[in-house]
Design brief:
This protein is of the alpha+beta class. The chain has a domain at about 35-130: Alpha-Beta Plaits, CATH 3.30.70.20. It has helices at about 1-25, 50-55, 100-110, 125-130, and strands at about 35-40, 60, 65-70, 90. The strands form 2 sheets. A two-stranded antiparallel ribbon has the order 1-4. A two-stranded antiparallel sheet has the order 2-3. A hairpin with a 4-residue loop joins β2 and β3 (about 65-70). The N and C termini lie far apart (about 55 Å). Bound molecules: iron/sulfur cluster (2 copies). One iron/sulfur cluster binds next to α2.
Amino acid sequence: MVGRVQQVFYPLSLSAKILARIHTLPPKPFWVIIMAFVVTENCIKCKFTDCVDVCPVDCFHQGPNFLVIDPDECIDCTLCEPECPANAIFAEDELPEGQEHFIQLNAELAKEWPLITEVQSPLPDADDWNGKEGKLDLLER
Ligand code: SF4
Ligand code: SF4
């Protein structure tokens, strides 16, 4: 019984330790090159915000109908990518064809939009917009 409890709780305590360590890391020195993750078009008009909950370093900034990742803060931990119900998050070197301009858009809007650190309700018609193409023109700033 004790062994089973340890099996369940040891990985959890390990995760907590890793997260605690990440929180104590100093800011990235200028010579460390870390690939950033990027939010792409399918987030527009969805904004489910599940990604925000797992980010250990608070990289996400929100606009009216889209979220972006600040590339200067992202530590490439990969935690947000599988959490996005819209499959809108990619590593910057694995972006789908035609989504490359979102690298610049994330960097630019992260400087303008406020930080978001807590999960919020998705936009009311998020499920209807999930998977629709050609949403860039609907991005609100
Ligand atoms: S989980 Fe995906 S769709 Fe939701 S806000 Fe984050 S990036 Fe956008
Ligand atoms: S890869 Fe990690 S650090 Fe970067 S935005 Fe996603 S959760 Fe945050």
